[in-house]
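Example 220.
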Amino acid sequence: MATNTLRSPHILRLLDRLFVEDDSSHAAMQQVTAQLDLPRLMTSKTQYRALYGLLKQMPLPVSRETGYLLYMLARSTHARTILEFGTSFGVSTIYLAAALRDNGGGRIITTEFEPEKAERARANLIEAGLIDLVEIREGDALQTLADGLPESIDLVLLDGAKGLYGDILKLAEARLHPGSLVLADDAHHCPEYVHSMRSDTLKYLSIALAGNLEISMKLE
Ligand SMILES: C[S@@+](CC[C@H](N)C(=O)[O-])C[C@H]1O[C@@H](n2cnc3c(N)ncnc32)[C@H](O)[C@@H]1O
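Predicted structure in complex with S-adenosylmethionine:
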């Protein structure tokens, strides 16, 4: 019988708690961002560290719907190797690692430059009982993902600084195979990335799903 780790009571409780924490952070988030030129900072290739430093107490997770979609896509593609850009408190990592568990095992490499967030993600993944599937690389993804990647990658989730989506994908692209998925959350903030994924029609099939999730499948 197929297992569904996401239905484990301790994981349901943990995800509920993390989403409640996210809900209660919205007012503080609005206060922090009210004075900022958010659209410019979100796409900046130079000021992302400062922006995320201001947001280091905020969970900023994928939505529940996107979380379930991540789980379903990772399961239905039988993913065994996953790369994630942007760990935060580990919500998306929990959905993806749960899929790996139910696929029979595998490895997710995820990366986060805020040390406190990396620690919180580790604690959450320990609580979820999924830490054995996860490698958390602490530091800027441009460095932490520059080497030591698995030979083949089945699924990539881009959910860090929006201005870097194209650069991070380049680090992993040679390891994708036909059928590999690249999922980019909040991709409406990076029109250049979306344009590049849709314009090379021999390389990728790419569409927007669930509002702001750009989903691209490697063709060749
Ligand atoms: C939207 S949140 C990720 C949410 C997470 N995927 C989840 O669902 O819980 C983006 C995270 O990426 C981190 N980040 C942004 N740019 C980064 C970079 N260049 N290297 C490492 N981490 C980065 C931020 O600190 C922030 O915690």
